[in-house]
Write a structure and sequence with these properties.
Radius of gyration: 15 Å
CATH architecture: 3-Layer(aba) Sandwich
Number of helices: 4
Oligomer: single chain
Number of strands: 7
Distance between the termini: 26 Å
CATH topology: Aminopeptidase
Helix content: 25-40%
CATH superfamily: Gcn5-related N-acetyltransferase (GNAT)
Strand order of the largest sheet: 1-2-3-4-5-7-6
Length: 146
């Protein structure tokens, strides 16, 4: 499994992920192809992108991770996976990888999610994140690493 920068060839996988109403249930309205392309263009033009592509051990695009500065001493982490990749343990593995990266950066970690997003809350608790607050309608879970 690998987290990497997005490439132009990721557009189909990104669109497949973001246009799926089931994937987007707790996030926002599904994307059109044009919206997915605009997001990809913005991410690729950024010096410090907030999302990165995720691929399986065979190099196949499986979704993306969210990893960016959240507060002065913490990074937000998360994932959005293609529905075909659900239930394979990828969210846990990606979470573990991003926690390791946060440790390297010597920052704490945070996960935001919709209160109804039970899978995300389960993974957060599995890795020791603790509920902290509701912010802008989302539950915020924090993991103290430093």
């Amino acid at each position: 499994m690998k987290i990497r920068e997005f490439e132009t060839s990721d557009i189909q996988g990104l669109f497949e992920t973001l246009s799926d109403p089931e994937v987007m249930t707790y996030i926002e309205d599904p994307y059109t192809y044009e919206q997915a392309q605009e997001l990809l263009d913005d991410v690729m033009a950024s010096d410090e992108p907030s999302i990165h592509a995720a691929e399986d051990d065979n190099g196949n695009y499986i979704g993306y991770v969210i990893f960016h500065q959240y507060e002065e001493d913490s990074y937000e982490l998360g994932w959005i996976l293609k529905r075909s990749e659900w239930g394979k343990g990828y969210a846990s593995k990606l979470t573990e990888m991003m926690i390791d990266k946060a440790r390297e950066l010597k920052v704490n970690a945070a996960i935001e999610c919709d209160p109804a997003q039970e899978v995300t809350k389960h993974i957060a608790k599995k890795f020791g994140f603790e509920f902290d607050e509701i912010f802008d309608g989302c539950e915020v879970y924090r993991l103290k690493l430093v």
